[in-house]
TrEMBL record:
Annotated source species: Thalassobius vesicularis
GO BP term (any one): phenylacetate catabolic process
CC per GO annotation: cytosol
Gene responsible for this protein: paaA
Name of the featured protein: 1,2-phenylacetyl-CoA epoxidase subunit A
Enzyme Commission number(s) from the entry: 1.14.13.149
Length: 327
């Protein structure tokens, strides 16, 4: 499927089977691949695609929660939400930097996001209708993100794996603050509990979709697992998430909106009902409720930030010129 051109740090290429075998042997020996190492072009392209999509998800993911900063119910909640949204922005920046080490520029990635060419996680195309959604995003969306990202800390590509270590620590905090918001509502008035249940009803299935299509329909999984970019398949991670989350919902006195969700003693995990993949693909292809608004808002933020980028660049140029004059 991929062109197997190889580009070394010195720009040399090697397309031999011998090189591919030696590269795979490094992966199998759990060696980390660094940006200056020669690598198959397919490996590089897969990482640029995945890390780029991941970075875009973090940045677009700031929008649904950002929507509630001015309406947080208390000062403490507002401070925590502000910090969380800023954390997500930071995650996007580490990830863009990790992708840049593979020879793609921030501008190219941004352009791909704005033009609709690059994907970002389907989950961020759903609206945040109530304060409970802010709790549910932390609980379910950060919870799903952690389940997916903990194995990425062992990804074969060094900069991605290292970025994930800090990201996972921060996401764990986000997950706990979200769960605590939902717990407060679930133990509150009947109206607050109903708000928490309504939020779980709306976010449960989209959260399961975050893990991507079933393994049989996952185009990239086999190769990504061979290269140890992914350590678990989409279905394996989805199952781990369900098994961890259903007891959390039970503890809160809430019910996941799936009549087929039952403990299966034999497999040692929960069964679940069918996922609506037609909805998933509709949202991924731009047909979700919020797709258009998300891209519009990202473009506006990028345009409004132009003077900041220009000023930072001018400052850096000035410092460089001063330093050169002094030498
Ligand atoms: N949404 O062959 P596969 C977060 C695409 S971070 C949209 O299975 P792969 C933090 C996929 O790209 C959330 N598209 O693909 C936060 C591919 O399309 P392509 C993001 C999806 O790469 C929390 C096609 O379908 N996390 O939430 C989705 O092997 C709270 C075929 O799929 C990451 O990005 C989807 N859900 O596996 C922020 C983690 N699923 O490229 C703010 C890193 C699949 O051929 C608030 N990424 N697609 O055009 C991964 O682990 C993988 O890329 C998967 C997909 C598992 C997402």
């Amino acid at each position: 499927m991929y062109s197997q051109g190889l580009i070394g740090a010195d720009g040399s290429t090697d397309e031999s089977q011998d090189f591919l075998d030696r590269f795979q042997a490094r992966i199998d020996a759990e060696e980390k691949i660094e940006p200056t190492d020669a690598m198959p072009e397919g490996y590089r392209r897969t990482l640029v695609r995945q890390i780029g999509q991941h970075a875009h998800s973090e940045i677009v993911g700031m929008l649904p929660e950002g929507n509630w900063i001015t309406r947080a119910p208390t000062l403490r909640r507002k401070a925590a939400l502000l910090a969380k949204v800023q954390d997500e922005g930071g995650h996007g920046l580490y990830l863009y930097s990790a992708a840049e080490t593979l020879g793609v520029s921030r501008e190219e990635m941004t352009e791909e996001l704005h033009s609709g060419k690059a994907k970002y996680s389907s989950i961020f195309n759903y609206p945040t209708l109530s304060w409970a959604d802010i709790g549910t995003i932390g609980w379910l969306v950060d919870g799903a993100a952690i389940m997916n990202q903990i194995p990425l800390c062992r990804c074969s590509f060094g900069p991605y794996a290292r970025a994930m270590i800090r990201v996972c620590k921060e996401e764990s905090f986000h997950q706990r603050q979200g769960y605590e918001i939902v717990m407060t509502l679930a133990r509150g008035t009947p109206e607050q509990k109903a708000m928490a249940q309504d939020s779980l009803n709306r976010w449960w299935w989209p959260a399961l979709m975050m893990f991507g299509p079933h393994d049989a329909d996952s185009e990239h999984s086999d190769q990504s697992m061979k290269w140890k970019i992914k350590r678990f398949s989409n279905d394996e991670l989805r199952q781990k998430f369900i098994d961890a989350t259903v007891p959390q919902a039970e503890f809160l006195g809430l019910t996941v909106p799936d009549a087929d969700c039952k403990w299966n003693e034999e497999k040692g995990g929960y069964d679940h009902g069918p996922i609506d993949w037609s909805e998933f693909w509709r949202v991924v292809k731009g047909g979700g409720v919020m797709n258009r608004d998300r891209i519009r808002d990202r473009k506006a933020a990028w345009e409004k930030g132009e003077w900041v980028r220009d000023a930072a660049l001018a400052h850096a140029e000035k410092r460089r010129a001063r330093k050169m004059a002094a030498e």
